[in-house]
Amino acid sequence: MSYSYTIPYSLNPNPLYNVDMFSSTRAKILIGLYVFLILSIPIGAYLASQSQIFKSKASEPKKTNTTAKTSPVATASATQDLLDNSQSNIAKLPSDQSSAPDSSSPEIAISFGPTLSLKAALEGRPAASQATKLFVGILEGVITANPKFLLSFTVDLPASGEFDNLSLAGLNPGARYTALLKGSAQIATASAFIMSPKVTYLNEGKIITMLTGDLNDDNVITEADFAIIQKFYGARANSASWNGNTDFNKDGVINSFDLAILNKNLGKTGASGAWTSPVPNIASPSAGLSLKESKPTFEVDRLTGSPAGSSGGYWIWVPEI
Predict the structure, then answer these.
(1) Among 165, 82, 178, 197, which Cα is nearest to 139's?
(2) Cα–Cα distance list, 31 to 34, 44, 53, 82, 264 (Å)
(3) Dist CA 188 CA 307 (whole Å)
(4) Is 308 in contact with 258 (CB distance < 8 Å)?
(5) How many Cβ atoms sit within 10 Å of the Cβ of residue 174?
(6) 282 forms bridges with which residues in the sheet?
(7) What's 167's DSSP letter?
(8) Judging by DSSP bridges, how do beta strands 176-182 and 132-140 pair with one another?
(9) Low-confidence ranges of the chain (pLDDT < 70)
(10) To 10 degrees, the CA torsion angle through 160, 165, 166, 171?
(11) Is the dihedral of CA 270, 272, 276, 278 positive or negative?
(12) Number of C-beta neighbours around residue 306 at 10 A
């Protein structure tokens, strides 16, 4: 019995054939790797550059748009500004000055040029009951007897005791002046100041205390004032003989508390000395301001310029340029 079989092609015993086959396969693999390396170099470089660009953009600070603000430059002269402001404020006044003010709309003080602000406390009164007619006179330099005021006002001091926007137009910023304050039952108090080009705060913004007891308005507290308060002793706010000026502590009755305040101040004289009339001398009209009550040589209508809740105000005269 005999057997026969066929040798597979892959197991061809011919050694030359197998060497050629393996050499061909290795060459193909090497060629493939070479092609892969060639292609991967530019692709890798491209990906690396894109990554660097992305990181650079992420690290850049965000830009914000800013708009430069410029301040207007004043070109008009101080005199022209004063006149322009005066005309503008006067034009805003109500046409009918005799009509009653609207209680729903608070009045705003009219100011011209640099202004003066003050805080006053009337002796004996509660902190929130400072309302009074307050005379304010401005003179150059230090206080003297029988002063001549460059500016003078009668203002309605509100219950808070604070008054703002009192015009100092016509005075010189940087110069030294003195303000004289006189209440309806108080002796005068002087306060010196150096004028600011914008807002001057009298007594550096601190409260000015005014001594009480001058009932006859001569700037001296004497027996004559004591005699006046004795006439109203025992009167109450609803009495026919009521005089509110003698109720120094504003408790609605004239009693020993009021007498004690006046008695404590007997013999004291206000700044600038005794007055022979309620309002001292006023400087000439060219100085600026005055009061109708002081009978100056010129007259203008009173402007509305009081704080909210008051009924009067002050007025101003501006010389022609």
Answers:
(1) 178
(2) 5, 20, 34, 96, 121
(3) 22
(4) no
(5) 9
(6) 149
(7) E
(8) antiparallel
(9) 1-23, 48, 50-112, 277-321
(10) 150
(11) negative
(12) 22
Beta bridge pairs of residue 155: 134
pLDDT of residue 64: 52
The residue assigned the tokens 């050629």 is 20
DSSP character at residue 199: E
Q: How far is CA 35 from the centre of its chain?
A: 81
The SS3 assignment for 151 reads strand
Residue 252 identity? G
Contact call for residues 287 and 170 (beta carbons, < 8 A):
yes
Distance from C-alpha of 138 to C-alpha of 140, rounded to nearest angstrom: 7
What is the distance between the alpha carbons of residues 192 and 194, in angstroms, rounded to a whole number? 7
Confidence (pLDDT) at 276: 75
Q: In order of start, what are the domains of the chain with their CATH numbers?
A: 103-294 (2.60.40.4130)
Whole-number pLDDT of residue 112: 62
Q: Alpha-carbon torsion 33, 34, 37, 40, what sign?
A: negative
pLDDT of residue 225: 96
pLDDT at position 27: 77
CA nearest 215: which of 227, 206, 207? 227
Query: Reduced to 3 DSSP states, what percent helix, strand and coil does the chain have, rounded to the nearest 5?
Result: 30, 20, 55
Task: Give Cα 256 distance to the centre of its chain.
Answer: 42
pLDDT computed for residue 103 by the predictor: 41
Q: Closest Cα to residue 114, out of 179, 174, 200, 180?
A: 200
> CA-CA distances (angstroms) from residue 25 to 12, 30, 32, 218?
17, 9, 11, 131
How far apart CA 280 and CA 136 sit, in angstroms, is 11
Beta pairing partners, 149: 282
